[in-house]
Hints:
Blueprint: E1 13-17, E2 24-28, E3 33-38, H1 64-78, H2 94-104, E4 112-113, H3 114-120, H4 127-135, E5 148-149, H5 162-175
Parallel strand pairs: 4-5
Antiparallel strand pairs: 1-2, 2-3
Helix pairs in contact: 3-4
Amino acid sequence: MNADPYPGADPLCSAMIDSPVGSLRVVASSVGVRAVLWSGDDATRVPDRARVDLGATVSPGMCRTIDEAALQLAEYFDGTRIDFDVPIDAIGSEFQQAAWLALRQIPFGETISYREQAARMGDQSKARAVGAANGRNPISIIVPCHRVIGSDGSLTGYAGGVDSKRYLLDHERRVSGQSIL
């Protein structure tokens, strides 16, 4: 029997978009963006992945949230958007949600350390837990975990790879008129 593990839940839609950092798969629910995945990304970063065929695509106009996310990502990469306002539908624990909210508060073109992010969340001793929560962030770029770096300034692990992280940080610095890494 093939019972739906999420009875009554809205199906997710998914589409590939091109970007300067490679193909990105945007996954959306009826509420908002559920994930922005890198090519070759671990599909387990999409909660409820059983409800989406990650190999499927939708036509333009079939999922308004994906169309809006694709437009906003294109504007971001064109340098005309510094904040995302597409609705998001990230699924995670209370702590993960708090960490992801803290990520969205980091201004465009700026970086902070994991310890600073933990301090902003109320306990700087939880830097490792923050790093783990950031690593589970399913909404790359829109929820900007690339803006968190090591306390020594090093570019630490990133789902899209360190080269993509460097590209995103350099892009934001160029757009905001700062020197690049």
